[in-house]
Amino acid sequence: MKFIFCLSVLVGAFFFTHSSVQKEDHAPYLAYLKSHFNPCVGVLIKKNWVLAPAHCYLTNLKVLLGNFRIRVKDGTEQTISPINIIRYWNFTDSYPQDDLMLIKLAKSANFSHKVQPLALATSNVRPGTVCLLSGLDWSHDNNGRHPDLRQTLEAPVMSDKECQTTEQGRSHRNALCVKFVKVFSRIFGEYVAVATVICKNKLQGIEVGHFMGGDVGIYTNVYKYITWIENTTKDK
Ligand SMILES: *[C@@H]1O[C@H](CO)[C@@H](O)[C@H](O)[C@H]1NC(C)=O
Ligand SMILES: *[C@@H]1O[C@H](CO)[C@@H](O)[C@H](O)[C@H]1NC(C)=O
Ligand SMILES: *[C@@H]1O[C@H](CO)[C@@H](O)[C@H](O)[C@H]1NC(C)=O
């Protein structure tokens, strides 16, 4: 959990120092996993399924779609309980490997301009492709436990070879590494989850609780798990 926090703090610093105006990004596919523990982010991939990191597993979590600001309601908020949570069969807490789970929602989400599913990767992404890192953030005047902004930043995907030269990339079988455009220069006490990597409007990576340090971010390569995701979420 320490790693997640570091990643979060550093990326929070990035957003804070490099965006003087915090504007809400669209990102209607982001799901906030609300619990009494660390905030986590998932992605709505079908009307009744959310893909998330397995380290976010908690029995009492709620999935918030649409607006998740607590103080301002705009009628787009949808809070849905999971009916089933399926962690990837080979996931263990001791490794950053296979850090994926599928959350089946007790009822289907209603799509709107604020709630839309995101397509899954259909191939591996070419190194150098500039992708969007999309996640949640705290606005300047939010001192609460829960984030209230969607944020995105751009970053290029690294080659597997380059990824393998980094310590955590080497120890992670199915990693997707991205290079943050600017090195984080300071730590700010505000944190965020840069939860997802989206390339050409497809979900390519999802956060692992493992910070690489410096200017590299490591994610689970979603494309490597497509068979499992499709099989698990297909309507029976
Ligand atoms: C399952 O996970 C462990 C630990 O990460 C790894 O050593 C092993 O190779 C994995 N097995 C398969 C079949 O992927
Ligand atoms: C979707 O809309 C229907 C009809 O308005 C409503 O009954 C249902 O509760 C909504 N679902 C969610 C997840 O909010
Ligand atoms: C697909 O999922 C079912 C359970 O939903 C499981 O029994 C089966 O082994 C899975 N097949 C593959 C290829 O993963």
UniProtKB/TrEMBL annotation:
Taxonomic superkingdom: Eukaryota
Gene3D superfamilies the record matches: Trypsin-like serine proteases
GO biological process: binding of sperm to zona pellucida; germ cell migration; positive regulation of acrosome reaction; positive regulation of fertilization; protein maturation; proteolysis; regulation of protein processing
Domain Peptidase S1: 10-234
A Pfam cross-reference name: Trypsin
Main location: secreted
Gene Ontology CC: one annotated term: extracellular region
SMART domains referenced in this protein's UniProt entry, alphabetically: Tryp_SPc
A single GO molecular function term of this UniProt record: serine-type endopeptidase activity
Keyword set, alphabetical order: Disulfide bond, Secreted, Signal
Location of the protein in the cell: Secreted
Signal sequence coordinates: 1-19
Protein name: Serine protease 37
Source species: Myotis lucifugus
